[in-house]
Here is the input.
Amino acid sequence: MDQRLYRPAVMGILLLFGLAAATRAEDLKTRNIVLITTDGLRWQEVFTGAEKELISKEHGGVADAKALEEAYWRETPEERRAALMPFLWSKFGGEGQIYGNRLRGSSSQITNTMKFSYPGYNEILTGFADPRIDSNAKKPNENFTVLEWLHRKPAYDGKVAAFSAWDVTPFIINRERCGFPVMGGWESVPELDPNPRQMLLNELITDTTRPNAAEVIDSMLYQAAREHLLRHKPRVLFVGFLETDAWGHAGRYDNLLHSANAVDRYIQRLWEQMQSMDEYRDRTTFILTTDHGRGTGPVNWRNHGKTIEGAEEMWMAFLGPDTPPLGERKECEPVTQSQVAATLAALLGEDYSAHEPRAGTAIRDVLPQSR
Ligand SMILES: [Zn+2]
Here is the structure.
């Protein structure tokens, strides 16, 4: 029998007996993925909110400790984290899943040994740690990302885009080869025919004094990604925010918290915008994560890298129509950064692990459970 005729027939029989495989595209509601990263945001802030010791001039470089306390300090970790990232905790915490709270038996680690950004984004996007990647140098990645792998399939051709505040990301994604729009750092938006909003944004990007030469301001990156979404309706969109890392390195705990709070708002607005659009409503999954953690204590909260204890600890979160609403995960199987790529693909019904055996496997709990 012709394979094309055979498969639907078998699927029909399986469905009849309630045995359908959980990760076939036919069984999934997800048609679109938004992958959002916020660079080097610690799991400590995500799960327990602001840290008392760092809300100070001495350890956190905080300009106005009283105002920062009012904004983010609360008595319990649950209240603090909800004050810092209200959308994450109300929405992902209620209807999605959040991994990485070591205090409750959930581990989420990187598998590369570098504990900095290029190796981390490589691991997120390709599904494996590559020991050859040992610096943030602007070298085109020889590895193929899951984004490029999807883009080569007809269903995703012209429907993938990546927006990152960091000017190294176009090399990590290999813009020269990948064939889809990539924005990195202080570049004009990737648009041949910019509309008035994009023209305004390009002027701001050109004219604004740059606090960090390698990293465009997150609010501008957000607007660039949002406008691309409205105009081109990608099926797979990567958005990479950077300020949570930059303010850590700068030793400014106040601005780090404000940046995390702003990222939470960007996520909320993207989610609500997409739920108002027919292309995306009830068929879109959001994946949130980070490229690395940071150290602990009054000095090392600023730092990460090979020698920094704890910078291998990260977190990840999922929200969408196929992900069981288990909320904050407790006492569960450990997950790793290397599983993000295959999980992203699996939510679209695609088997990335079969193509790339070095990649971590899809996280089963995030997918619909077999009946
Ligand atoms: Zn980083």
Remarks:
- The longest helix spans residues 253-275.
- Strands lie at 32-38, 97-99, 108-109, 160-164, 182-184, 236-241, 284-289, 316-319, 327-328, 335-336.
- Confidence is low (pLDDT under 50) at residues 1-5, 10-21.
- The two ends are 28 Å apart (CA to CA).
